[in-house]
Specification:
Blueprint: E1 2-5, H1 11-21, H2 28-36, E2 40-47, E3 50-60, E4 63-71, H3 80-94, E5 99-105, H4 109-118, E6 121-126, E7 137-143
Parallel strand pairs: 4-5
Antiparallel strand pairs: 1-2, 2-3, 3-4, 5-7, 6-7
Amino acid sequence: MIIERATEADLDAIVELERHSFPRPWPRSTFETELAAPQSRLEVGRLGGVIVGFVNYWLVADELHIHSITTHPDHRRAGLGTQLLDHMLAAGRAVGATLATLEVRAGNAPAIALYTRAGFTTVHTRPRYYQDNHEDALIMTMPLLAS
C-alpha cells in the first residue's frame, strides 16, 4: 500500500469510505477544512491506484492526535489498518511528538484491539459521549519514543 497526502481529487473516495465506516460520518466540508488546516494531516492508502483507506490526524506541539483511521470494508483484516496506524506514529515521531492520543467508541472492539496491539492504553472514559447512541468514549494514549 502506498500512503500519501490526500488532495481535493481524493475527497469523493474519502467521503465514501467515511460513510461505510462510521455511524455519524463527517461531511465533505469537514474534510475540505482538514485539507487546509496547517496542523492537520489527511492521507490516503492506495492499492493499485485505488484508495482503500485513509487517516486523519493532527500534529500539535508535541502530540499526535488521531482523529480517524479506516479501510474499505472489502480490505479489512488484511493489515492495512496497522500500516496506516504505523505510518501516523512514524510521522509523529519524525516531528518530535512524544505522545499519541485518540478517542474510540467503547463498543468498537476491532479498533480497540488495533490500538492495544500498537501499545495504546485506556486512560479515561467519557461516559455517554457519542450523541447518536450515548455510547462511552475511551481515551487512549501511547508514549512516542524515538525508534
